[in-house]
Structures are given as C-alpha cells and as structure tokens.
Design a protein that fits this description.
The chain is α/β, with parallel strands linked by helices and about 700 residues long. It is built from 28 helices and ten strands. It has a seven-stranded mixed β-sheet. Strands 5-10-9 form a three-stranded mixed β-sheet. Helix 8 packs antiparallel against helix 9, helix 12 crosses helix 14 and helix 24 packs across helix 25.
Length: about 700
C-alpha cells in the first residue's frame, strides 16, 4: 500500500510539470527510470494495478510530447513578446529607481510631463517609425500639412492624442496621472508655440497668394482689352469669361452630360439618354447667354442639383474611363476644328470690313461731292497756288480716296507745325472722291498752309503703254487672279483670296508713289504720307536730315527675324536670290522723305518698271506696293530714327504708350483702321481728336456716333 501511494505521488507530481514543452521529454525519461528503480526495489512483488498505470503512462507521454511541441510553435511569438515586454518594464522600473536618486521630484515631474504629453510625437516614436517630426504623426490616420495648418486643427489633434493616450493608460490598468502645475505650464507654452507656428504659416501663404495676384494684375494691365475692337473676344465685356464659378460649373456639367448621353446611346440606354438630353436643355435654358454669375437666373441652382443627381446616376451605370476619355478627346478635336473654321471666317470678315467704307464716310463724300459741283467754277480754286512749285517750302504728298482720313492728316500736320504758312499739301484722289476732297478743304482750309487737290484720272501720261501695272490690271489673267474668289462657295474658302480684292491693290493711287518726279517735276524733296497716319510733332526737321546720297529716308521695321526681305519676296526665284539679301532689313511706307533729284539721276521709276514687268506672272511677289518698293529702293534707303515713325496701331495691341506719345508720326497700318468699328479703342483717341465733330457735315452723316 505504501508502494502504491508513493507511485501515485510521483504520478501526480509528473502531471504538474509542463509536459507540453519539449523539455518535458527528459523529465519523463527520468521519471521512468525512477519508477523502474522502485519496481526493482520492490523485488517484483508489485500489484497488477501498478503495471497498468505504467503502460498507460508510456503511451500518453509521447502523445503529450508532440502535442506540446505544436502548441509551443503557435504560441512562441506571443510568449516571446510577453517576455520582452516584461523585460522592458523591468528595465524601465530599474532605470527609474536610479534616476529618482539623482533628480528632485519637481525635475522628474517636468521630464514626465514632456514625455507623457508628447504621446505619438515622442522622439522614440519617430526613431522607430523613421518619420519626420514636421510632417507625420504616429497614431493618426491623416497627415497634417504645415501649409494648411491652423490653430483649430492643432487643438483638435491635441485632444485626439490625449484621448488615445488616456485610453492606452486605462487599458494597461494604470490610473490616469494628475496634471501638475509644471506640466500644465509646459503644455500651455507648447500650445502657444504651435498656434504661433500655424499663424505664421497661414500668413506666409497669404503673402504668397497676394504676390501672385498682384503679379497677375500687372500682367493683365499690359494686355489690351480690345485687340480686335467690337468684333473681338478680347473686348472688356468678354474679359475673363469663365471666372465665375457657377457659370463654369454649369458648363462643365453640360460637357459631361453630352459625354454620357453619347455613351448611353451607344449602349442602348435610351431612357437615360433621353433624361440627359432633357436635362441638357434645362441647363442650357438656365445658362442662356450669361457670362457671369450675376447674370444667371435664380433657378440655376435647382438645375445644377438636378444635373448633378443625373450625372451621378449616369456615372454608376455608364462610367468607363477609357470610353469617357475617348469621348472627351473627340469633343476636343471637334472644338479645335470649329475654332479653326471660325478663325478663317474671322479673317474673311476682318478683311471684308477693312476694305469697306463706313456709311458715315460714304454719306460725307456724297454730300460734299453734290455741293462741290453746285459751286460756280470761280469758287472751286484754292488760294496761294504760287506756293505749289516753290522748292524752298515744305511739300507733302498725300494720295487718298478717304475724305475724313485725309482731313486728319492735314489737320494734325498743320496744328503741330511751327510755321504752317511754309507747308504745302499735294493731295491726289480718284474721280469719284475728287469733288468731295475739294469741297471739304474749301470749307475747311488748313489755316495759312497751302493745299491743292488733283484727280489721278486726269494724268494722261499715266497709261497702260507707260505703266506696267496698269497694263497688267487690264489683262484677263490679272482680273481672274484678283477676282477668282467670286467662284468660291463658302466664306472660309474665299478668305485667302479676299485680300487680293482690296481696292487699294487695284487703284493707281496706291502705285502713284513710284511716279513722284513725274507728278511734281519742279520739286527737290517731298515728304510722302499715307492717309492712315497722325502727325504729332513738327516734321520740318526731316528736310534737314542728310540722306547721304540715298533716295529714300524711312524707318526700318526689322526685328530679330521679322520684316526682312525673305518675308516679302520669293527667294526661290533666281532673279530674287541673285540680287537681294534675304536678311536685309525692311522699311515702312507711310512717312518717307524722297530726294527727287537723286531719284531722277538713279532712274528709280525705270527700276520699278523693270521689276514690275518681270512679275507679270506674280512669281517674284504676290501683291502690294511694299515688295516692289523694297526691291526698287534696295541699297538706296537711309534709315531714320525710329521716333520719327511708330507703326502697328492697326494690328499690334501691345505698343508702349510712351513710345506712341514720343513719336512724330503714328501709323495705323493694318486692317483695324481708326475710322472703322473694328479699330482698337485704346489707339483711337489719337486720331479722333483731330476731327471736328461739331461740323454740320459730320453731324449730318452721324459720324460722331
């Protein structure tokens, strides 16, 4: 009985051991040896019950060994983690005991406040996670950007960090610590620094935005608001068309609605396509012609909400990134083609407007013509006709069929001259406007200056046998070339040829500049002026300019690569390539001082005839008088100072105002003439100040409106 009791005692002790671990195998072997020893000591007289228990133990022990190893493998990580945490806690407690002996209680409270309040912002946390203390916060889902930080965001994050820290402490079974005065003071100082930092960042952003806005405003001031006058999209009422957010939102919704409508039609979603079409009509009706939020109807917000819901529905049913991208690309290409077509039509219309005469000017010309021919012949003569051939006076040549434009040139020249009695104006017009030009200056004589008007059709020497351009204009080939745009059926198709039909290219008034010695044989020098210029200073200084034996004094117009000979002439032609430099600088007609004596010696008119005859098939240049002028006066032009003549007021919206005001002559070369509605409004005041709007003829033809 004692033997059995001792055996059962050993068995109970063995079950109290940790058998599931692999180290239990050795203990089992030792216990087996102990049992065998007991058995031997008993002398083999044990009961049968001891044998049964021994057999069961030998069977159960291996099974328990293998099961214990498997459980150990699954729990090993948790076990090791627990051990490491206990080890860390033990080390922290040991370190705290040593630190406590070195520092006073107040110092330890300050250190603890710093480390506890940092929470996920602690240095140890950043080291473990390899984060930047300026940008990332451990334990938060979102990262706060310094550029958009504010005091409210900092305060909210502080509360979230504190709550998380308290929950962590409570979960660990530790009571919440009580804030000490030192801890509270430290926290308030830190919060103050954060608020100041956030305020500084917001102020920096505001400063940057303000600088960008100011720079944008300065750039916008340099852009003219009426580049193309009343026909331009750049007019003031159309500036910044899409700045209003509501208008822009409605238009964006309509674009996406068209995309989804097209996709719905492709996928046979007829009901959805119909809904999109109806909502498109509603949005278009609400938008109307509005270009700003202030112009929208009150119902537009309801339309926006309805369209938003419908687009959300369409997106759920139809959205396919590849298909939507393809549709947007197709819409972009279509819009690009429409813009290209509209540009062609705009070119056509601008050229059409440039060659037409406004009703007011046509009315003025007709009324003046009628009144002129009602005058008796003796009242049709101008005074001081003896000055017309006096070479000691300042002579001007002006060839025009526009009465109002010619009056501005004469008035501006006389009003800005120092000695108007020494100025002589030689006007030449066509037979249609000859009477109107005479009548205007008879009614409005230019003060003490001398004026004379002639009719180009009365120059009998200017005929087709002498003048090549007249002969060419009378040929069938030239007529077909100038008027072939009549056969075009569309605006855009005829736009490229309309410029050739401009009357100035067909009028001899435009080519008369090559015959100045023939028109004024008694003069030595003459200043040629176009009718689209305004004189702002006394021009008598031009007669004192030494031309150094050249024929033509003109302002050069070439820049880095603009307005050089290769822009006007066909250098693929051997005659052009052999005789001219493609990089030679061009110059401008509009204000030119011509030395008629040198002209006659150099036979300039003969040179012009030579090149004009060679260009009968238009192989040297296409049209106009500037290309043959560049060729005729090649090597015979003296460059004048640019302040004498500023060009581009008929096409360039970015001319410097100071440059314009300092110029002696400003030139409205281009399609946007100052007497047309498409003139640039910023340049028009320089021209209209020389018009007498209170004149009965001006008021009668409503030219002031």
């Amino acid at each position: 009985m004692n033997k059995n009791a001792s055996f059962f005692s050993l068995s109970r002790n063995s079950h109290q051991l940790d058998l599931p671990h692999c180290s239990g195998a050795k203990m089992a072997v030792k216990r087996g040896n102990s049992i065998n020893g007991v058995r031997r000591n008993s002398g083999g007289g044990g009961s049968w019950m001891s044998i049964v228990i021994l057999v069961l133990f030998l069977v159960v022990a291996p099974v328990g060994f293998f099961v214990g190893c498997r459980i150990t493998s699954t729990d090993q990580n948790d076990f090791s983690t627990t051990i490491s945490k206990e080890d860390v806690d033990w080390r922290a407690k040991l370190a705290f005991l040593h630190v406590k002996s070195l520092f006073s209680k107040e110092v330890i409270d300050v250190i603890k406040a710093n480390t506890d309040d940092l929470g996920p912002l602690s240095l140890d946390s950043f080291r473990k996670n390899n984060l930047s203390a300026s940008w990332k916060i451990s334990g938060l889902e979102n990262v706060i950007d310094d550029n958009s930080a504010s005091a409210e965001i900092v305060e909210a994050n502080k509360k979230r960090i504190t709550i998380g820290k308290q929950e962590k402490i409570l979960d660990a079974g530790h009571p919440q610590s009580i804030d000490t005065p030192a801890k509270l003071a430290r926290r308030q100082l830190r919060d103050k620094r954060r608020e100041n930092r956030a305020a500084d960042l917001v102020k920096q952003d505001d400063d940057v935005i303000m600088k960008l806005e100011n720079a944008a405003i300065e750039r916008s001031k340099s852009v003219d608001s009426a580049v193309l006058g009343k026909y331009s999209i750049w007019r003031k009422e159309n500036d910044n068309e899409n700045t209003d957010t509501t208008v822009r939102l409605v238009r964006d919704q309509m674009i996406m609605a068209r995309v989804y409508k097209s996709i719905a039609t492709m996928k046979n979603k007829t009901q959805l396509a119909r809904e999109l079409q109806n909502q498109l009509k509603e949005s278009q009706r609400a938008l109307g012609d509005a270009t700003a939020d202030a112009d929208l109807n009150r119902s537009v917000q309801e339309k926006i909400k309805a369209m938003g819901k419908l687009l959300s529905k369409a997106k759920d049913q139809l959205y396919d990134c590849k298909m939507v991208t393809g549709k947007l690309r197709a819409m972009l290409q279509s819009a690009d083609e429409q813009v290209r077509s509209l540009k062609k039509q705009s070119t056509f219309l601008s050229q059409l407007a440039a060659k037409t005469i406004p009703n007011g000017i046509h009315c003025l010309s007709m009324r003046l013509t009628i009144d002129y021919y009602l005058l008796p012949p003796e009242k049709r003569k101008f005074p001081r006709s003896e000055n017309l051939e006096n070479p000691s006076l300042y002579h001007y040549a002006l060839f025009s069929d526009n009465v109002l434009a010619a009056s501005v040139v004469v008035n501006s020249t006389v009003m800005n001259s120092k000695e108007p009695e020494k100025h002589v104006f030689h006007l030449v017009s066509d037979k249609l406007n000859f009477g109107a030009m005479n009548m205007w200056f008879l009614l409005n004589p230019p003060g003490k200056a001398t004026i004379h008007v002639e009719n180009v059709d009365e120059f009998k020497w200017l005929n087709s046998s002498y003048c090549p351009v007249l002969r060419q204009l009378e040929s069938a080939a030239m007529k077909e070339y100038y008027f072939k745009s009549d056969h075009q059926t569309t605006l855009s198709a005829g736009s490229s040829n309309l410029k050739y039909r401009n009357p100035k290219y067909l009028s001899m008034l435009n080519h008369l500049r090559f015959y100045l010695p023939q028109v004024y044989p008694k003069l030595n020098k003459i200043l040629f002026l176009d009718d689209d210029i305004v004189v702002q200073k006394d021009l008598t200084g031009l007669w004192r300019v030494d031309l150094h034996g050249k024929v033509n004094g003109a302002v050069e117009t070439c820049g880095e690569s603009f307005h050089r000979f290769d822009k006007y002439l066909n250098f693929s032609n051997p005659h052009i390539a052999r005789n001219f430099d493609p990089n030679a600088c061009g110059w401008a007609y509009g204000m030119n001082m011509f030395d008629l004596e040198v002209w006659t010696k150099k036979d300039i008119t003969g040179i012009y005839h030579k090149w004009q005859n060679m260009n009968e098939e238009r192989v040297l240049w296409k049209l106009g008088t500037l290309p043959p002028g560049l060729m005729t006066f090649y090597g015979l032009t003296h460059p004048l100072d640019k302040s004498w003549h500023v060009l581009g007021l008929g096409y360039n919206p970015s001319i410097d105002k100071n440059e314009i005001e300092k110029a002696a002559v400003i030139h409205y070369n281009g399609n946007m003439k100052p007497w047309l509605e498409l003139a640039m409004t910023k340049y028009r005041p320089y021209w209209i100040k020389y018009i007498k709007f209170d004149h009965p003829y001006i008021r009668g033809c409503k030219l002031g409106q």
